[in-house]
Design goal:
This protein is of the alpha/beta class. The protein contains 20 helices and eleven strands. The longest helix has 27 residues. About 40% of the residues are buried. About 10% of the residues have low confidence. This is Response regulator.
Length: about 500
């Protein structure tokens, strides 16, 4: 039996002995297949990741050699012509076929995300999950982008496991031993409101009401200094309950040890409800979120953030505005995180189409640079928020929840009233008398799209596009589409070499 370690230095173990997996590049191939979670990884992707920019001429044969040697190490008893059972060929590349419990990172994630029957079972599973952690995940490959993203995702899951473990211990009435670990956890991660909730509750149950209120004051200071935000509703409610010495805060009677040894480290855990929401109700639905960004690395980072946040459910990913429109129709998300600059159809044009539909989702625009032009355009599109891709994960989550609540988050000091002030103002480069939808149509015509391509991009009937183009030419006093292209370039609505308008 082969066991793959990914939580810490990468290695494979069979019958208690560490396998010789060869050099760093061979190990990187196996680790990359492990990160794929059983899905096929194309050979071209392996080559690009191992030799970014300038792969050697013999890269394909080198990968094949790596796979051959890895197969011999993983299945030493396999006959020469027998089909591999662990590292298998899966066109257009290779895949790792292993059981969940044979891969530490897979087993760890399964334990953290699985449903639990009561606090005792939760505590036991979180202890098991955290026992698999042996150091920074994929520690030997931190110079590779895919390893960095996966390590960040797994570390977020570790924090979640740490918090769920402590929450279960509190529910079982085990308070005193938690406080030192909770102090350390909250200090190391001062923007995690759940860490402060658990610490304040543990302090209160230990008879330290003043220290519990002090912990909440520290939480408020951290959130205000870093994000310009006050405590969320959950912490505000806890603060009021502590001041009122509410009876429901009292600790339950301590339950049996349930396999946890005396002195075992128990750290903080998330409650059963999303942070900053009302207490959990049976059948409460998670918020459905769609990501639209043309950069795979950005999408991966956003997935890490959303996966680590209870109460948020990623329902789809789009690489351009055209895909975003179609996915919104198919998945019916509550919130769309939309990049402004994307190929084929940019985020602002896609947002306008999405928001024009019946019962549309909330749309939050994302950009790398917070320029006035981008802010102005996003506000004019009628979106529910505007965030930088460099924003802290907590601020992105706050924007999602604010949008669903009917508020808007542009900046800690700027909210809905600013959107109202901008509403109705026009793009100074657009011809007079044209709507935003007309401008979007001009941009697509100027980029050489046919009526059929425009219809597919905007998800409208082709006949409607033909009528809109004719009406647009008539309104502008133009004869044909060529003149429309000239107008678009003269007004600066498009420019040579620009992938999106």
């Amino acid at each position: 039996m082969v066991i793959f370690r990914a939580l810490g230095p990468f290695e494979a173990i069979s019958d208690g002995e560490t396998l010789d997996l060869g050099g760093q590049r061979q190990q990187a191939v196996l680790a990359r297949l492990l990160v794929a979670g059983g899905r096929a990884v194309p050979v071209s992707a392996l080559i690009d990741e191992l030799w970014p920019g300038e792969p050697p001429a013999q890269a394909l044969s080198t990968i094949q050699g790596y796979v051959s040697r890895l197969r011999r190490a993983l299945e030493p008893g396999r006959a020469p012509r027998e089909e591999a059972g662990i590292l298998v060929s899966a066109p257009p590349g290779y895949a790792l076929r292993a059981g969940v419990e044979d891969v530490d990172s897979w087993h760890f994630e399964h334990l953290v995300k699985s449903d639990h029957d009561g606090p005792a079972a939760t505590l036991e599973r979180m202890e098991t999950a955290l026992g698999l952690w042996r150091g920074p995940a994929l520690a030997g490959f931190q110079e590779l982008m895919w390893a960095q993203a996966e390590a960040m995702r797994l570390d977020e899951l570790r924090l979640l496991a740490v918090e769920r473990r402590a929450d279960a211990a509190l529910r079982l009435g085990r308070t005193g031993a938690l406080i030192p670990d909770l102090e350390a956890h909250a200090s190391a991660h001062p923007l995690r409101e759940e860490a402060w909730r658990l610490l304040a509750l543990a302090l209160y149950r230990a008879g330290r009401q003043g220290d519990a209120l002090g912990a909440l004051r520290r939480a408020r200071e951290a959130l205000r200094d870093e994000l310009g935000l006050d405590l969320g509703p959950t912490l505000q409610r806890l603060e009021q309950d502590i001041l009122a010495q509410a009876g429901h805060l009292d600790a339950p009677e301590a339950g049996p040890a349930s396999g946890v040894s005396p002195g075992a480290r128990v750290a903080p855990a998330l409650p059963d409800t999303p942070r900053g929401t009302e207490p959990a109700r049976a059948g409460a639905r998670a918020l459905r979120v769609l990501i639209a960004d043309d950069q795979a690395l950005v999408r991966t980072g956003l997935k890490v953030i959303l996966d680590s946040e209870p109460g948020l459910d990623l329902v789809g990913e789009a690489e351009n505005g055209e895909q975003a429109i179609a996915l919104v129709r198919d998945t019916r998300p509550d919130v769309v995180l939309m990049d402004i600059q994307m190929p084929r159809l940019d985020g602002l044009a896609a947002a306008r189409r999405i928001l024009a539909a019946e019962a549309p989702p909330k749309v939050i625009m994302m950009t790398t640079f917070g320029t006035d032009e981008n802010l102005y355009a996003a506000l004019r599109a009628g979106v529910s928020g505007f965030v930088l891709k460099t924003s802290a994960p907590e601020q992105l989550i706050a924007a999602v929840r604010a949008a669903v609540a009917g508020d808007a988050l542009l900046d800690p000091a700027v909210t809905t009233h600013l959107i109202s002030a901008f509403a109705g103002r026009r793009d100074p480069s657009a011809p007079e008398g044209l709507s935003d939808a007309d401008v979007d149509l001009i941009k697509l015509v100027a980029r050489g799209f046919t009526n059929r391509q425009i219809a597919m991009t905007l998800d409208v009937p082709e006949g409607e596009v033909a009528g809109d183009v004719t009406a647009l030419l008539r309104a502008l006093g133009l004869v044909d589409r060529a003149q429309l292209v000239v107008l678009a370039y003269e007004r600066g609505l498009v420019s040579p070499g620009t992938p999106g308008a």
